[in-house]
Amino acid sequence: MNKTTLAFAAAATAALLAGIQPVRAADPPAARARAASQTVSASDRTFMTKAAGGGLYEVEIAKMASQKAESADVKQFAEMLVKDHTAANDELKALAASKSVELPKDVPADKKKKMAMIENNRSGASFDRAFIQKVGVSDHQEDIKLFEMASRSAKDADVKAWATKTLPTLKEHLAEAQKLAGSKK
């Protein structure tokens, strides 16, 4: 046996002992996808799914706010959210595809209800205040907690790196929202 064959045999044996089935290039794509998804822990998949749903929500509600807001500052904030969350969503989609993790394609039902509550019976300054408080401040506080946890405890290095990379942008959004909330009282 040459060194390459020996190294492959040792790696395959270790994988089998760990309960991981080796994947070869000749395996069907479905088998490779199953093997790749086995490398992402359930908690990492849950984080990715929550982050994706939250990201879709942020983009949709920010698009609404960029049209419906009265204040130019709130419209500008909403446009920043659309740009930044769209970029983060695209990165997460690519990461999930590389890990064979299925992400939601639509805003989750609980987030749709939240969108309706913010939009219904509100216009002008009332809409602006609700959007800044609920989306800008409250939602970003929740997002930051979720991303901080993932940046500390995600098992997959790529998932951890993405959470860590995205966190400063979420903190910037929160700081900007808090500034706007103070001026909209």
Automatic annotation (TrEMBL):
Record-annotated DUF4142 domain positions: 43-180
Signal peptide per UniProt: 1-25
Task: Could you list this entry's UniProt keywords, alphabetically sorted.
Answer: Signal
Matches recorded under InterPro entries: DUF4142, Ferritin-like
Domain of life according to the entry: Bacteria
Q: PANTHER family annotated for this entry?
A: BLR2558 PROTEIN
Q: What is this protein called?
A: Membrane protein
